[in-house]
């Protein structure tokens, strides 16, 4: 359990490793309404020059955000979150899927206007050893 009163610049969040499967893409498509065939059809993905079916960018972003909300223990504590999409996550048509490696580091801790402590966290998301989100950063209100 994290002692949030002691969170400081340079602290690392516990890493999170997630598998993204084609079934996850189907569920996300249904929830988001994004049925673009590059997220489910190998022929379409290849026809537009992709190396295969890719995860939705917003799904990748959401999974990376889970690193921060899981650490703090409350999704409502998230004050801001933004990323740039730099590379796709290619999801093979097998039972294993794609491995998404997530890590984070506290860039700073500041006092919010309401007196709360706000951690500014830099998030790293990697697939196949390469960063897939750039400038991924979150601001989260620390508990207690």
Automatic annotation (TrEMBL):
All residue ranges annotated as the MaoC-like domain in the record: 18-104
Q: Which Pfam families match?
A: MaoC_dehydratas
Superkingdom, natural source: Bacteria
Q: Quick one: a GO cellular component term?
A: fatty acid synthase complex
User: What biological-process terms (Gene Ontology) are attached?
Assistant: fatty acid biosynthetic process
The record's section on InterPro entries has: Fatty_acid_synthase, HotDog_dom_sf, MaoC-like_dom
Transmembrane spans = none
One MF term in GO for this entry?
fatty acid synthase activity
Which CDD domains does the record match to this protein?
A: SAV4209_like
Task: Please report which protein family the annotation says this sequence is part of.
Answer: Belongs to the enoyl-CoA hydratase/isomerase family.
Q: What is this protein called?
A: MaoC domain protein dehydratase
Q: Which organism is it from?
A: Pseudonocardia dioxanivorans (strain ATCC 55486 / DSM 44775 / JCM 13855 / CB1190)
Q: Could you read off the lineage of the organism from its UniProt record?
A: Bacteria, Bacillati, Actinomycetota, Actinomycetes, Pseudonocardiales
């Amino acid at each position: 359990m994290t002692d949030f009163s002691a969170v400081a610049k340079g602290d690392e969040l516990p890493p999170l490793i997630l598998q993204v499967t084609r079934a996850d893409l189907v569920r996300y498509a249904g929830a988001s309404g994004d049925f673009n065939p590059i997220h489910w059809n190998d022929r379409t993905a290849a026809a537009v020059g992709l190396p295969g079916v890719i995860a939705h960018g917003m799904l990748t972003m959401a999974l990376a955000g889970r690193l921060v909300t899981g650490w703090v223990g409350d999704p409502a504590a998230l004050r801001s979150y933004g990323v740039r999409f730099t590379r796709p996550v290619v999801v093979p048509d097998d039972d294993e899927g794609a491995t998404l490696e997530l890590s984070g580091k506290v860039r700073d801790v500041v006092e919010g206007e309401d007196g709360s402590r706000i951690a500014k966290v830099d998030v790293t998301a990697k697939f196949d050893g390469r960063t897939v989100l750039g400038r991924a950063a979150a601001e989260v209100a620390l508990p207690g």
